[in-house]
Amino acid sequence: IQVLAVFLGLLIPLPKVSLKKKLLTLVVLSGILYVLNVLRITLEFWLVYFDVLPWTLAHYPLSLLLGILGVLFLVLVTNRLLPEFSNFMFHVIQKAK
Q1: What is the pTM of this model?
Q2: DSSP per-residue letters across the chain
Q3: For residues 11 and 8, what is the distance between their CA atoms, to the nearest angstrom?
Q4: How confident is the model at residue 19 (pLDDT cuts 50, 70, 90)?
Q5: How far apart (Å, rounded) are the C-alpha atoms in residues 13 and 25?
């Protein structure tokens, strides 16, 4: 939910992009996020169940790394679906300098 809320906050202010296109992107991101989360949980369970990693390593450091990679993947998907996304983000960064 938190990741979707962040993406919602980034997509809503995009100028000159239709609401339909924004909502479609959010629906696609939601589906991808759900699948990635299930895969992450499955991997963690498998690693702990077969004694590859202890729970303390599988849960926090691995989960954090997979979360960061997942968000990076979602940013790339968002940029693919809405090229305006990266243009807007670069514009905002340039204005902040």
Answers
A1: 0.87
A2: -HHHHHHHHHHTT-TT--HHHHHHHHHHHHHHHHHHHHHHHHHHHHHHHTTSS-HHHHHTHHHHHHHHHHHHHHHHHHHHH-HHHHHHHHHHHHHH-
A3: 5
A4: very high
A5: 14
